[in-house]
Amino acid sequence: MSQRLRPDLRPCLATPRDLPLVEEALRALARDLDDPFRASPHEVARALFGPEAFAEALIAAEGARPAGVCLFWPVLSTATGGAGVHVSDLWTAPSARGAGLGRRLLAAAAARARARWGARFARLSVYADNPRAEALYRRLGFERELRAAPMALSGAAFAALAREGEA
Hints:
It is a single chain. The longest helix has 17 residues, at 101-117. By secondary structure, the chain is of the alpha+beta class. The protein has 5 helices and 5 strands, in the order βααβββαβαα. The chain has a 5-stranded mixed β-sheet with strand order 1-2-3-4-5, with helices on both faces.
């Protein structure tokens, strides 16, 4: 389904008053990916707007409903030689898919990261069962990193490692 570019779908940097839209969009992404959504509104607000905020979000809306969201934060890569941006979540509403909103959200995140952190690259992960998202990323020039594979540490194992570091 290839729709025309919709000029009304413009990403904006999320503010605290946008928190309900951001959370609604992130919950929709989790549903679409059949992922759990465990972040409380407090955790999302703290990450985006707290005194030690470490992430940013771009939001696009259709009236009072979210049309798209992009959640991102800075990273540093010695191999790449500087700052970059990690996009952890990108979602567009079914009504906005094919209208260029995913590209606009990623472009706005890249521009913001370059201006704010001097970012030179972007990283993200894509689920193997999401070929439409992978096709978008490839059209934009993203490539699979063959030497690196994402790994995760959570739950009791993360807590044990953190306690070890506190000792």
